[in-house]
Amino acid sequence: MSEDALVNTSAVVWPDSDSAYFAVRRMQIKLHRWAGEDSSPRFGDLFNLVHDPAFLVHAWERVAGNAGARTAGIDRVTVAHIETWIGVHAFLDGIRDSLKSGEFSPVAVRQVMIPKAGGKLRKLGIPTVADRVVQASLKAVLEPIFEADFLPCSYGFRPNRRAHDAVSEIHFLASRPRNYQWVLEADIKACFDEIDHTALMDRLRGRVKDKRVRALVKAFLKSGIMTTFGETEDTWTGVPQGGILSPLLANIALSALDEHFDQQWRETMSTDKRRATRKRKGLGNWRIIRFADDFVLMVSGDRSHAEALREEVADVLAPLGLRLAQEKTRVVHVDEGFDFLGHNICRQRKRGTQKHFIYTRPSKKAISSIKGKVREKVNRSTLHQGLDELLTGLNRMLRGWANYFRHGVSKQVFHAIDHLAWHRIAKWLHHKHSRLRWSALRRRFCRPGTWIIAHNGVVFTGASSVKVTRYRYRGNTIPTPWTPKPAVTTIGA
């Protein structure tokens, strides 16, 4: 494979969305295959792909179909404005010309503050639509290359991978006969805000030879922030949360953590014999499971082995400009339980037996959050709604929440949430129809002979309508979108 002869991008006609999708996918499959065949080559001439018509049309479709399409950056331009007043092809023509001429320059992202659990606020950067399209095109070029290098222990913001895979990996390692019982529960302080740009660009340079692509990535990193007070701030570190490219760049940086512990695993712990030898010598064995900037180290050994890893992790993160949040980083035993990605993971004795198993269920924080949302949705401020409208929104919200937690021991939790929601709806009805007695409310708003609330064909089904099922552990057999066939090898533990 020649580094400089990747593809002929001389086309000037804008393809339709379907043709663009298949053209991009064919190119991504090639990039992924070339990257997977040899981890050493650096890719050149990638910039031509970034401004290729198929990649730009594909990027536009992604931006326009995103939930944030109605949100504008600092230029106040939305997707709807472009479609109505500028024209999509004219807009893409302008982007393509500015990229080819080297005149394209990202502008500052518009910063907004969004609420987090616990009442805190999180910074979110909103790029302009033009910057979003270029970021989406850039990601479509870079992602297949770096996905060939990313390791199976990383699950966040990667195609075909989800939080359930990370939780099932922890479940697998903590269960018999592997018994990784000690856990270093780590938290990186302000990860997206503090990633060192030089360290990130060094890692990008390891795969990308094209200076124009690297310059474009650096331009996005240095584009600045327009604060809520209208002031522009320079961005010396970090990747702005909210950008399409940001999760990929964060994974490129944090893959240094995966590679460090993967190298230890391959050199000293990769076989049963090696792990048994280490155990006889009083040494521990460990594995890392990472979802974006949230990660845990599962340790087979004793508490001291897990504690020792705290400083090791800090040493790996330091060159990236990152540090652990000491107050949130702790060592726990699986019998104590710990929270990860909204799940509580704990080993407990199975009722009626003397056997112990790993159980995952919604965390207290996740339960408290959904209860708060139910109270917010069903109160006196929403009395102007019809009951059918209220039930439709509530069912949708509870089903979405339950679908995320359906693979845990969640049935009783679902019933408890529905119990709360039912009583809130009943109280809501009593306020809305204060002159009616409960018997009259039941006749009007419940199915005959039951206490099932329904109105105009809409029935309250809640979280309990979601069936609880076991999640199939996939290990490292998860294929990428550009992998012809799923891998069949598995990692030992």
Task: Give the topology.
Blueprint: H1 17-37, H2 47-50, H3 53-65, H4 79-86, H5 88-101, E1 109-115, E2 121-126, H6 129-147, H7 163-174, E3 182-187, H8 191-194, H9 197-205, H10 211-221, E4 225-226, E5 232-233, H11 246-269, H12 272-280, E6 285-291, E7 294-300, H13 303-317, E8 330-333, E9 338-340, E10 343-349, E11 356-362, H14 364-377, H15 387-405, H16 411-432, H17 438-445, E12 454-455, E13 458-459
Parallel strand pairs: 1-4
Antiparallel strand pairs: 1-2, 3-7, 3-8, 4-5, 6-7, 9-10, 10-11, 12-13
Helix pairs in contact: 1-3, 1-6, 3-6, 9-10, 9-11, 14-16
- Taken as a percent bin, the fraction of beta residues is 5-15%
Largest pleated sheet:
4 strands, mixed
Question: Unreliable stretches, pLDDT < 50, 5 or more residues?
Answer: 1-11, 486-490
- The strand line-up of the biggest sheet is 2-1-4-5
Shape: globular
The pLDDT mean sits at 93
Total number of helices:
17
The oligomeric state is single chain
Structural class: alpha+beta
Tally the beta strands: 13
Helix content: 40-55%
- Rg calculated over all Cα atoms: 26 Å
Note the run of SSEs as H and E. Answer: HHHHHEEHHEHHHEEHHEEHEEEEHHHHEE
N-to-C span:
36 Å
